[in-house]
Specification:
The protein is α/β, with parallel strands linked by helices. The protein has helices at residues 15-24, 43-50, 68-77, 91-101, 117-124, 175-182, 202-212, and strands at 6-10, 28-32, 58-63, 82-85, 105-111, 129-134, 164-166, 186-189, 194-196, 199-200. The chain has a single domain, classed as Aldolase class I (TIM Barrel), CATH 3.20.20.70. The strands form two sheets. An eight-stranded parallel sheet has the order 7-6-5-4-3-2-1-8. A two-stranded antiparallel sheet has the order 9-10. The longest helix has 11 residues, at 91-101. The structure holds the ligand O=C(O)c1ccccc1N[C@@H]1O[C@H](COP(=O)(O)O)[C@@H](O)[C@H]1O. One of its GO terms (molecular function) is phosphoribosylanthranilate isomerase activity.
């Protein structure tokens, strides 16, 4: 049976890892434009990688509370298929970005407890997709990419009106369980396919995608 699970590999910084993600069957590749991240990539380098991404794989720009000048630069120079908003962007800001660039927008919602679920419904009215990630702890330096999971039971059996991805602490070892518990049809990973912060591993990328599809690794 062909699995319908779509995988996003986020924080790619070199051609070999983009190629590994494509070969393994990734549906999305993510470029991280948050300067404090170990996965940060410059606009020039992202452009070099993006032009060679095979057709059919969506190229996603991850930004955090980016202003229009920065988004203008990214969108103007990198061929992109989606914008991932991983900061504290309001509903109004999401709507503004969506209208200004004409690209699908994926808003990230951090989840730690039941109280965070209302935001999922709220943003599903305006975003094209949602990414449901672990809410970063207060002391975390990064708003994502911390390798932390949330309690997947919080969203088990929930349905929303737009497509969504599950993220947060996913690895080749736990992604199948995460999918089975939440019913996710799309998953996103950054640190779980790395050997050190920002250092992707071709084998882990392939293992993650296989595991997400329920194949033996
Ligand atoms: O990866 C980062 O460094 C990052 C920085 C700032 C915002 C978001 C970031 N990553 C996103 O978070 C999810 C989950 O990461 P992880 O798998 O738990 O490491 C990741 O897929 C990115 O979309």
């Amino acid at each position: 049976m062909v699995s319908e699970i779509k995988v996003k590999i986020c924080g790619l910084r070199d051609a070999a890892h983009v190629a590994a993600a494509a070969k393994a069957g990734a549906a999305y590749v993510g470029f991280n434009f948050f300067s404090k991240s170990p996965r940060y990539i410059s606009v020039d380098d992202a452009r070099s990688l993006a032009v060679d991404v095979p057709l059919g794989i969506a190229k996603v720009a991850l930004t955090v509370n980016a202003d229009n000048a920065f988004l203008d630069d990214i969108v103007g120079r990198v061929p992109l298929d989606m914008l991932q908003l991983h900061g504290s962007e309001s509903v109004e800001r999401v709507a503004e970005i969506r209208a200004r660039y004409g690209l699908p927008v994926m808003k990230v919602i951090g989840v730690a407890d039941e109280g965070d679920l209302a935001a999922i419904s709220e943003f599903s009215k305006i975003a094209d997709q949602l990414l449901i990630d672990a809410k970063p702890p207060k002391e975390a330096e990064l708003p994502g990419g911390n390798g932390l999971s949330f309690d997947w039971r919080l969203i088990a059996g929930q349905r929303w009106s737009v497509p969504w991805m599950l993220a947060g602490g996913l690895t080749p070892l736990n992604v199948a369980e995460a999918i089975s518990m939440t019913g996710a049809k799309q998953v996103d990973v950054a640190s779980g396919v790395e050997t050190a912060p920002g250092v992707k591993d071709e084998r882990l990328i392939a293992d993650f995608i296989k595991a997400a599809r329920g194949e033996k690794t």
